Amino acid sequence: MKKNKISKNWINRQKRDIYIRKSNIEGYRSRAVYKLEEINNKFTIFRDGLKVIDLGAAPGSWSQYISKNINNCKLLAIDIKNIETINNTYFLKGDFLDEIFQEKIKKYFNKKVDVVLSDMAANTTGNKNLDSIATGELCIEAMNFSINILNNNGQFVSKLFMGSIFNEIVSLAKKNFKETHIFKPTSSRKESKECFLICKKLF
Length: 203
Ligand SMILES: C[S@@+](CC[C@H](N)C(=O)[O-])C[C@H]1O[C@@H](n2cnc3c(N)ncnc32)[C@H](O)[C@@H]1O
Description:
Helix 6 (about 130-150) runs parallel beside helix 7. The chain is about 45% helix and about 25% strand. By secondary structure, the chain is α/β, with parallel strands linked by helices. The mean pLDDT is about 95. The chain is built from 7 helices and 7 strands, in the order H-H-H-E-H-E-E-H-E-H-E-H-E-E. Helix 4 links the parallel strand 1 and strand 2. The structure holds S-adenosylmethionine (SAM). S-adenosylmethionine (SAM) binds near residues 95, 119 and 121.
């Protein structure tokens, strides 16, 4: 397909997408917010007073959702990219895969946290299998980090893609958490292999 045809299709799809329209009206920076809302409605992740880490937070709609809906939350947002300021949210810019950066995150809380969210996604290459592996590796790194920083009743929520690394990730989750669920929100595009892993309570 020619380049200008692809971008026309992209523009048309953006116009038709009800979640993009809704996010513009409600003042959210991305349609991704509705995935988190659906996850929270189904699995009750949030309550007031929680300590939360939002990995891969840019442009910031998940952090916006938490900041608007959860009272007295201590929220730390992380991304390689900059994000515009969000109320009641502390932002740290850096590469989550960097061990020194992970130490910085731990230092910020200096104690266990209640929720680790990861919507991190690797840059796409066009090869769906390679893309799912790269994002799967981010998910595994986020899970290993969570196991160290979550309190016993903590929750871990992460994006992942169906693909060759999927079963490995799910069995790792089952080894470490008492409850694990896989969920595809209605707001996640049907044609995408994206789904979410929801884990509760460490063994
Ligand atoms: C799908 S977007 C997240 C959208 C976000 N949840 C929202 O609601 O606005 C994925 C993000 O993951 C970030 N990311 C990917 N790899 C990362 C890494 N190693 N460290 C930190 N952030 C990373 C990207 O920069 C990108 O902003």
